[in-house]
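Shipment paperwork, digital attachment
Item: protein structure file
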Amino acid sequence: MKISARNVIDGTVKEIKKGTTTAHVLIDVSGATITAAITNESVDELSLKAGDKVKAVIKSSDVMVAVI
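Attachment content:
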């Protein structure tokens, strides 16, 4: 996978908190936690669950999640 963002950080999903439309995905990065706000649909499409190895993709003020 190639993307234009330069800030890509390896992490592990700690927890997923689904809301009405938006989920907060808590990602452990060497003991620090990064939270990504993504749609519930994206969580389902990526089949995200606690323990998954992911990459936090940071561009501007947004944090996205990529699965490889």
